[in-house]
Specification:
With 94 residues, this protein is α+β, with helices and mostly antiparallel strands. It is built from two helices and three strands; from the N terminus they run H-H-E-E-E.
């Protein structure tokens, strides 16, 4: 069967568990390679649910073979600069 994660069929994991595991892996890379660039290649659903958790927003779809660029700051957390190949507009700070 399917292999999609939204309801939870990825090896018995729920989407939330997969997101937490994916984000944990990316955060471990961010810590190990602090200040350096790291390329992460994964299934688009895992990338999407992990980014959702990292940035606290809902990204509905990640296209295949496109640039998604996220920056990690030790105190400020994750910032998504490019999504589906397009530069994200920063929210106004008020």
């Amino acid at each position: 069967g399917g292999g999609g994660m939204p309801g939870g069929d990825a090896g018995g994991q729920t989407g939330e568990e997969a997101a937490a595991r994916g984000l944990g892996a990316v955060e471990a890379l961010a810590q190990e390679f602090s200040g350096r660039r790291v390329l992460v290649v994964a299934h688009c659903t895992l990338l999407r649910v992990s980014l959702n958790l990292a940035i606290g927003r809902t990204l509905h779809r990640i296209d295949n073979a496109v640039l998604n660029l996220a920056h990690h700051h030790v105190t400020e957390g994750w910032h998504l600069e490019y999504f589906n190949g397009k530069r994200m507009v920063a929210a106004a700070q008020g």
